[in-house]
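ARCHIVE CARD
Drawer: 12
Card no.: 0347
Subject: one protein chain, sequence and derived structure
Cross-reference: see card 0346
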Amino acid sequence: MSRYDGRASDPGSYRSDAGLGSGSQSYSRGFDKNFYMESHSVAAMNEEEVEAYRRWREITVEGRDVPKPVRVFRDVGFPEYVMQEIERAGFVEPTPIQAQGWPMALKGRDLIGIAETGSGKTLAYLLPAIVHVNAQPVLETGDGPIVLVLAPTRELAVQIQHEATKFGASSKIENTCIYGGVPKGPQVRDLQKGVEIVIATPGRLIDMLESHHTNLRRVTYLVLDEADLMLDMGFDQQIRKIVSQIRPDRQTLYWSATWPKEVEQLAMQFLYNPYKVIIGSIDLKANHAIHQRVEIVSENQKYNKLVNLLEDIMDGSRILIFMDTKKGCDQITRQLRTDGWPALSIHGDKSQAERDWVLSEFKSGKSPIMTATDVAARGLDVKDVKYVINYDFPGSLEDYVHRIGRTGRAGAKGTAYTFFTAANARFAKDLIKILEEAGQKVSPELAKLGRGAPPPPGHGGFRDRYGSNRSWS
């Protein structure tokens, strides 16, 4: 018996237990995964209207029989319980990734979605997941989840769980979040009790599978979120190990902010005849709502520059400062606090309880300055971060785009300041491309570095009370 009566056709067909690991059993029955019925208003759109809408919202699609995008929530055909949650959330219209991604996901086909962080992609896969769960037979004792969402970081996993809890409550869908750095007991109890949705980081999930606390035999809806970061973090083999334990006729949704060759190669191994939707360009670019300002500095100028900048911009708004190392993060935070600045830090060596507390203090505004390593670059959803400061330039341009993307979210404006040293010169040419694409000013000093010239004497060029010259790009 299914969880709700709105079942659709297009069952899968699976009669092999190959690759499911120990304790697997053969699933001869199919399952429902096509829940999309095109509304009259969407059906009435001609090709010119469809193309005009996609151009307006910067939507590019690939694949066979791609459905038309939806322009309003009612056109998606979500059940009433989902619509009520959307209305309660106060959303005005679907984001571009939702407008095109929802019809694709609801049709039950595999999907590749490429969109920048903060584009609304979490609900682009979670709301179809809720519909999917409600059409499947209810969980029985010993069953694992129906939906599995893999995420690279604890912060992103927790944020996904928050949305899953909020939008799954009306249909009593249970979820749990599985990640390392905290005691296993509560997570094990959730899994043994039975949950329809599991959001997990790869390492802790493999631990739970090897300890036989759960299994993936019931998973028919698989999401890989932030696939590019998972590869960057070395989760390649763990992902393969997990996917090998899921039935091959599952529906797989593969989400990434960028589309390097490694991400594409992994996707081609896991997906069958997928749709592909790209929001904006697959070329690396920054959110145009963010004002990017870059200054050439020397390493020993950074702290004084930071203090001077904080004195200029500190107005009670949230300020996120990125460092390369955990040690540097703690050192700068201690120095800021000694100098009277309300700063806290977050990085991978801190316990989950401490990280949760720091995030809570930052979100509430009690500590409006937070220093962080790249653990917070993705998955940190604080909607009113006004300023991002790159105290250390990151190790890749992808990480630069993701870091500054912590501001300028949900239609808001933001500003990103970046300290750029001679050691970062190899990134200058590509950084200039990102700045120019977003219509940002490029300083003469940065332009010279981009042409291969040495940095100017002193690596700066303006005078402030610390004896340096101020000139932000």
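Annotation on reverse: The CA atoms of residues 66 and 242 lie 29 Å apart. The longest strand covers residues 290-296.
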